[in-house]
Write a structure and sequence with these properties.
By secondary structure, the chain is of the alpha+beta class. The protein has six helices and five strands. It has one domain: FAD/NAD-linked reductase, C-terminal dimerisation domain (Enolase-like, domain 1), CATH 3.30.390. The chain has a five-stranded antiparallel sheet. It is globular and about 55 Å long. The termini are far apart.
Length: 156
């Protein structure tokens, strides 16, 4: 299940032996579980992020709201994004859905590239695709964070 992890750790070892600066970052690793629907993850869960001292928030949605999932009758499952509340950096993506093994690739790039909710929200995701949920969830979480910030400003 984690052959890709071992491969990366081997590359890190080789680069380190050659005197190059390369590190394995467990908080950006990913995995796929080939069940039906499939499960896939990259990065941190909400609890893992909080344990690392990140003021994290999450947003999730059922696959049943996705147009492509409705078209293909693959509506079981959900998608979740975990982000740093202060920087808006995406620290985790979790999928339980048909085709999660390929869909998680976009999440891998978000976490590895340290993308923000704003960057994902502004990206133009094609419709109808299951990846468009990434943009939708990023916009939802940004909206929630803005409303929360406004409430704090009014109270202060």
């Amino acid at each position: 299940m984690l052959a890709h992890t071992a491969g990366q750790q081997g590359r890190v070892a080789a680069h380190t032996i050659c005197g190059e600066d390369m590190k394995y970052d467990e908080s950006k690793d990913s995995g796929v579980i080939f069940t039906r629907p499939e499960a896939a993850f990259v990065g941190l869960s909400l609890d893992q992020a909080k344990a690392k001292g990140i003021d994290a928030v999450e947003v999730k949605a059922p696959m049943s709201i996705d147009a492509k999932a409705m078209i293909t009758n693959e509506t079981h499952g959900m998608i979740k994004i975990v982000a740093d509340k202060n920087t808006h950096r995406i620290v985790g993506v979790h999928y339980l859905a048909d085709h999660a093994d390929t869909l998680i690739g976009e999440g891998v790039m978000m976490v590895a590239g340290e993308m923000t909710l704003e960057q994902v929200a502004q990206a133009i995701h094609p419709h109808p695709t299951q990846t468009e949920l990434f943009g939708e969830l990023a916009r939802r979480l940004l909206s929630r964070l803005r409303r929360s910030a406004k409430k704090k400003t009014k109270v202060a």
